[in-house]
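Need a sequence for this fold. Nothing fancy.
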């Protein structure tokens, strides 16, 4: 009967630690990416706030476009930050999250840049509108800068991997002829 106890201890599946559904972790975010994501959210929020403060507009179409894009950028940046910082990251998988970030950041950055240009073109010249498009340009720069930094880091990692394991170099034994001629 003692053997049964030993076997039971080793063959029982280990209980997984309980997962808190709203737990936050930074293990999937490098420090530079966490800073970039936080900066994107803050600058987008400031652009939304400044845009909402505008009381009068002469050509309101540009303001409405900027409102939609800045609010969307703020919400999407928060959503992506939440995906990186919660268990949703494991649920989707690293490849899908990285692919989503790969496509979302440049699209958001370009849309924010275009909306800021449209706001500048249709602005009535108020200080609040000026602050809104300045924050819009800064936010679009933060979105686009993340992509540039990510490309730099991924290229650097690729070069490091190639230098550690060069595929075309031959070892000393491979350089020797198969049949020694005497």
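Here you go.
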């Amino acid at each position: 009967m003692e053997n049964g106890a030993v076997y039971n201890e080793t063959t029982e599946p280990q209980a997984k630690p309980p997962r808190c559904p709203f737990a936050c972790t930074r293990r999937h975010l490098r420090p530079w990416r966490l800073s970039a994501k936080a900066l994107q959210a803050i600058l987008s929020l400031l652009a939304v706030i400044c845009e909402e403060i505008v009381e009068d507009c002469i050509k309101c179409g540009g303001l409405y476009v900027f409102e939609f894009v800045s609010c969307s950028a703020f919400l999407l940046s928060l959503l992506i930050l939440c995906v990186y910082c919660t268990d949703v990251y494991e649920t989707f998988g690293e490849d899908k999250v990285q692919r989503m970030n790969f496509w979302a950041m440049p699209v958001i950055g370009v849309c924010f840049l275009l909306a800021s240009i449209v706001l500048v073109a249709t602005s009535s010249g108020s200080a609040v509108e000026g602050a809104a498009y300045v924050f819009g340009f800064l936010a679009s720069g933060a979105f686009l800068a993340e992509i540039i930094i990510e490309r730099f880091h991924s290229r650097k990692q690729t070069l490091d991997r190639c230098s550690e394991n060069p595929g075309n170099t031959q070892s000393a034994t491979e350089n020797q002829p198969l049949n020694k001629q005497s």
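For context: The chain is about 70% helix and 0% strand.
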